[in-house]
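Hi V.,

Quick status before I head out on leave. The structure for the redesign project is tokenized and pasted below; the design run finished overnight.
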């Protein structure tokens, strides 16, 4: 039995475990717990591929496991978080969505629109597995980036000091727009650069270095508010880079 080839799969299953527990936390409305588990799951997601390449044990099983784990951590979880945000923004009874006896009792189906993120993530992950163009870059927003954007929103609302952003996140129309835009971006034919370094020279990696420096500065200054801004900047930088290459 070759134990070495199972090590990356164990890391992938760690991602899945984090996502499964994060789903429970999302139902409870524990958004801090959700954020910690999703970030931990994304770390597992990064290192499973890294370890597989390092050990030379890449294979189809690992590829499929990776997408299945991502479907939970970066698909189901952000959909549930968005549903919760919409429940709060619409001021409806959460028991109507998460209670056993009163399921659907609120009479409003609008919060379920948040689950479009889950559907969009599923379609993207399935398409990613059969798309041979995404080895060195991405086409469409990666699901972990979408998940980070969404899980940052309740943290901004709870811990943020800028009232403008708090009011924005509690606005149902803003949340509907975010859901629609993120679902579109995940499946849009927009090439996005990957943060993979084949070399460390500045000239060939200028865009990546500038982006990473900007990320650090934004996180220091804006804290949680920086996360959705970083995702937006990532998309804008990629589009500008595409136009320069055209």
């Amino acid at each position: 039995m070759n134990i070495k080839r199972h090590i990356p799969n164990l890391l992938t299953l760690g991602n899945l475990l984090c996502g499964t527990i994060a789903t429970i936390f999302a139902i409870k409305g524990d958004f801090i717990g959700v954020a910690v588990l999703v970030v931990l799951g994304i770390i597992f997601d990064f290192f499973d591929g890294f370890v597989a390449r390092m050990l030379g044990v890449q294979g189809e099983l690992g590829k499929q496991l990776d997408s299945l784990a991502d479907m939970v951590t970066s698909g189901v979880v952000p959909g549930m978080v968005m549903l919760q945000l919409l429940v709060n923004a619409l001021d409806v009874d959460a028991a109507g969505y998460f209670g056993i006896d009163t399921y659907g009792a609120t009479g409003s189906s609008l919060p379920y629109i948040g689950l479009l993120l889950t559907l969009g993530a599923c379609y993207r992950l399935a398409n990613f597995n059969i798309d041979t163009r995404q080895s060195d870059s991405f086409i469409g927003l990666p699901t972990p980036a979408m998940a980070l954007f969404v899980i940052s929103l309740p943290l901004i609302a709870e811990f943020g000091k800028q009232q403008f952003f708090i009011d924005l996140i509690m606005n149902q129309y803003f949340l509907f727009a975010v859901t629609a835009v993120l679902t579109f971006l995940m499946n849009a034919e927009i090439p996005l650069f990957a943060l993979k370094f084949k070399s460390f020279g500045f000239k060939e990696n200028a865009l990546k270095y500038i982006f990473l420096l900007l990320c650090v500065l934004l996180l220091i200054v804006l804290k949680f508010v920086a996360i959705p801004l970083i995702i937006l900047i990532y998309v804008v930088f990629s589009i500008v880079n595409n136009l320069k290459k055209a």
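Above is the designed sequence. The radius of gyration is 19 Å.

G. will cover questions while I'm gone.

Best,
W.
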